[in-house]
Structures
1.
Amino acid sequence: MERPALQRLLTSIRNGLIDVVVVYKVDRLTRARVDFARIVELFDARGVSFVAVTQQFNTLTSMGRLTLNVLLSFAQFEREVIGERIRDQVVAGTVRQDVGRAGVIVPFRTASPGMSPLRSRFA
């Protein structure tokens, strides 16, 4: 929750300046269930209503909280999948440096006497 705008929002809520928080989608506020649980706890303590414009649920009922937790579970899953894809692309980028013309990983060979290491690798 190291987002400056979110911190300003939470400070305003603590100071009693805000009574309704409206977002486009729940995952625009946060994608982490733990963070959202803390935020909703603050909302409840300060009597702040929470509205997601594109998603219908009521955080005051047990069914609304369940729906919200399911949505946040998927949002957190999506965030983790995006992170995995980025890590895979970074690894793939380092592997691509070792790929030959035919798309096959070229094994590294030691240089023969009189041959440069670079040339021996692709010989």
2.
Amino acid sequence: MFSGGAAGLHEFWPHPWCDLGVGGVGGVEVRECGRRVELFEQIRRDRRLEKLSTRELAQRHKVHRRTVRQALANAVPPPRKPYGVRARPALDPWATVIDGWLLGDREAPREQRHTARRVWQRLVAEHGATVSEVTVSRYVALRRVELGLDSVEVSVPVDPRPGRGG
């Protein structure tokens, strides 16, 4: 079905999950698709075929002239700048406490491990924390993945006798 190459790529554009609006080239709003590669491709194609100026390209595609210049200079969009680590003023004082509880849960039986709600309740009761339950819940979910506490071990008993599931 997909022949590959540049010609095959155009058969599936615009993507079916894109929310296409009114405007742009042929009634297709490229920006709402969220695919900068296709946007850069359209800008380069319009420049090559219609000889439009930078300003006209910017107006047609509803982007800044700087974006048009980037598209004309290189077919691949520049990578996004990495975001810095944001401060969590409500949660940072309690992060080590929560991490200690979660790490302590490694040895505890499953029924005795802390749920996110229980972590929040202990923070409020034992430490007087003024942090929302949702904030604690998001942090606990994130840290469980980072610490590898989200994996579940499953064992299936095998009966080696013939015809008994083994």
